[in-house]
Design a protein that fits this description.
- This protein has eight helices and 14 strands.
- The strands form three sheets. A six-stranded mixed β-sheet has the order 6-7-8-3-9-10, sandwiched between helices.
- The two termini are about 35 Å apart.
- Bound molecules: adenosine-5'-diphosphate (ADP).
- The site of adenosine-5'-diphosphate (ADP) has 11 residues, from strand 2 and helix 1.
Amino acid sequence: MATLTLREVSKIYAGNVRAVSGVNAEIADGEFVVLVGPSGCGKSTLLRMIAGLEEISDGEINIDNRVVNHVHAKDRDIAFVFQNYALYPHMTVAENMAFGLKMRNFAKDEIAKRVGEAAEILGLTPYLNRKPGALSGGQRQRVAVGRAIVRQPKLFLFDEPLSNLDAKMRVTMRAELIKLHKQLKASKMPATVVYVTHDQVEAMSMGDRLVVMKDGVVQQVGAPLEIYNHPANQFVAGFIGSPPMNFLNAELQQRGDSSFVVGKGFELKLPRRFNGNNRPVVFGIRPEDIHERGDRVSTASG
Ligand code: ADP
């Protein structure tokens, strides 16, 4: 369990490729935060910098109020679950989960205890003696998570861990990971999680908070519904939500005391907070807010 603070963290690759620009974030102990954005927006680079697998070009990364910029990856007490979570095929589930602890010379009793506890939490107890080849994709994924849990790390980092699974298994695993996070919170091992995905549905359904990124720059940080109901800009409005928000070019017009948004074939009265005259604007409306006459209208909160 740990807090994680990012201050003005940037990454410039050779050739002046600016992958991450001035990212600031404070992640609380036990929080599940999702970094989300389209492919190439810098999510993996940011995660790898937190892990210590990538040098940072500028800024500061703090774990539990300790600057770790120059701390080696293996000394950051972090567990990293990748997309390609290679399990050792010739080892059983129990051996796969125990491997990292063995390498760190943990006592046999302690290894057995931790593997037993993790297997219990993950529902893997009946499979401890099986080899990965005899497991489903979801079970293998759970073993990969188990390998991370037994180390009792300060911080869990996940990089698109579900993208190799089929759609149905992905939905199941999302729910399982959320349940697991809750269980760890209720137990003595609350886990701080940073989870990377390009899939906004996954982000919305999993994160306590989301960090939405584009072109290496953070666009908005907030709880899923806060972002959905109050997107900070047009990019966030269009990226979060499925099917996406519709955008129409329009103009703001002021008539007497009232403001209107006027577009091709439509004119809508606006709340007072809008002002300016003959100003070009973009009018956005979510598909679920469009109804046929006679439809029952349910209003979104917020
Ligand atoms: P994401 O995880 O959001 O898909 P990445 O962090 O992988 O994005 O990449 C961010 C940007 O940095 C991309 O433009 C990518 O091409 C570039 N990039 C990633 N790794 C390297 C590298 N080793 N050298 C140069 N450019 C890189």
